[in-house]
């Protein structure tokens, strides 16, 4: 008997922020047996699109959850864990509104519980892009068994052990010095080597990574940068973002400079030949977006993708 997989996502005003959320949901649906959406009382039409998708596909369930009024780094994790608690599957798959699963990885992800049934959590490969320029790569724990100890952490960028579980393990370690030393050694190994080969957590290579699009259109990119500066107190970037406005109508120059800003912020650099991801490498569901006029448009929900939801 195959394991049931619950996917889940948290959304609020994602049309306004330019996230390709319909594409993200369309891409993950073939992996999941149910897909839960936490919708944060959006005012930009996001909720109405979510309701339409739920009417088209019975896998999709929509819940409305109020976001805390206090602006904190981990607000998204708090809301994500609300919907995570409603999942009924044997396994959980957490996705965000700008993350697209490549169609070549669907079969592998669907079979992951059979491939390594002992694993509790799985780190998956991500490539981070501004439009079609890469600026960062990493692994994130997004696929886990449905156990209480695994929750969204930080700003929900990954899943990890709950605080109660961590505290419990720390107290066990204090009572057992050998156990504490083993945890310390594993922590150092994780920090400097990160092999991801423990029985608890595995790093998994997929046929294609998950594509995380920081932004697809210039105006959306600039708007997101403003929020990023406020959230992470990156005032040193404000002048660079203002200068970038001069290139909104010059597509190649804009995206080259936008990618360099992100790379410099993260200290991640690519040779010119490796910096751009060619159209044929992207997930099929976003190729039309990449072919569209990127100089003037914001993200818009496309009927073609929305209508595909009913058959996924």
CATH domain topology: Spore Coat Polysaccharide Biosynthesis Protein SpsA, Chain A
- The tally of helices reads 12
Q: How would the global form be characterised? A: globular
Structural class: alpha/beta
Kindly report the average pLDDT value: 87
The ordered H/E elements are EHEHEHEEHEEEEHHEEHHHHHH
Please report the first level of CATH classification, the CATH class.
Alpha Beta
Distance between the termini: 21 Å
Corresponding CATH architecture: Alpha-Beta Complex
Strand content: 15-25%
Number of discrete domains = 1
Largest sheet: 9 strands, mixed
Number of strands: 11
Task: Describe it.
This protein has 312 residues and is α/β, with parallel strands linked by helices. 39% of the residues lie in helices and 21% in strands. The protein has one domain: Spore Coat Polysaccharide Biosynthesis Protein SpsA, Chain A, CATH 3.90.550. It starts with a strand and ends with a helix. The chain has helices spanning 21-28, 46-56, 75-84, 106-115, 163-175, 177-192, 218-232, 238-244, 251-266, 272-275, 287-291, 303-308; strands spanning 5-11, 34-39, 60-64, 91-94, 99-100, 121-130, 133-145, 150-153, 158-161, 201-203, 210-215. The strands form two sheets. Strands 1, 2, 3, 4, 5, 6, 7, 10 and 11 form a nine-stranded mixed beta sheet that branches. A two-stranded antiparallel sheet has the order 8-9.
């Amino acid at each position: 008997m195959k394991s049931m997989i619950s996917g889940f996502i948290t959304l609020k005003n994602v049309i306004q922020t330019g996230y390709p959320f319909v594409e993200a949901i369309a891409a993950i649906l073939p992996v999941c047996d149910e897909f839960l959406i936490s919708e944060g009382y959006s005012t930009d039409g996001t909720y109405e699109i979510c309701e339409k998708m739920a009417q088209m596909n019975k896998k999709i369930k929509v819940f409305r959850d109020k976001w805390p009024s206090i602006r904190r780094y981990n607000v998204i994790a708090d809301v994500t864990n609300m919907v995570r608690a409603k999942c009924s599957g044997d396994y959980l798959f957490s996705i965000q509104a700008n993350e697209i699963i490549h169609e070549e990885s669907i079969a592998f992800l669907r079979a992951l519980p059979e491939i390594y049934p002992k694993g509790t959590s799985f780190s998956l490969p991500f490539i981070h892009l501004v439009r079609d320029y890469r600026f960062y790569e990493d692994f994130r724990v997004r696929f886990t068994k449905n156990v209480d100890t695994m929750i969204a952490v930080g700003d929900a960028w990954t899943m990890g052990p709950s605080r109660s579980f961590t505290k419990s393990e720390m107290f066990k370690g204090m009572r057992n010095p050998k156990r504490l030393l083993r945890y310390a050694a594993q922590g150092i190994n994780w920090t400097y080597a990160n092999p991801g080969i423990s029985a608890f957590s595995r790093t998994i290579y997929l046929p294609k990574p998950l594509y995380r699009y920081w932004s697809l259109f210039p105006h959306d990119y600039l708007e997101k940068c403003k929020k990023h500066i406020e959230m992470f107190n990156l005032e040193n970037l404000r002048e660079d973002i203002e200068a970038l406005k001069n290139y909104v109508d010059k597509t190649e120059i804009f995206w080259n400079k936008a990618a360099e800003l992100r790379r410099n912020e993260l200290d991640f650099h690519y040779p010119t030949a490796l910096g751009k991801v060619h159209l044929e490498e992207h997930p099929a569901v976003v190729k039309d977006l990449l072919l569209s006029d990127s100089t003037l448009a914001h993200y818009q929900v496309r009927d073609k993708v929305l209508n595909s939801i009913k058959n996924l």
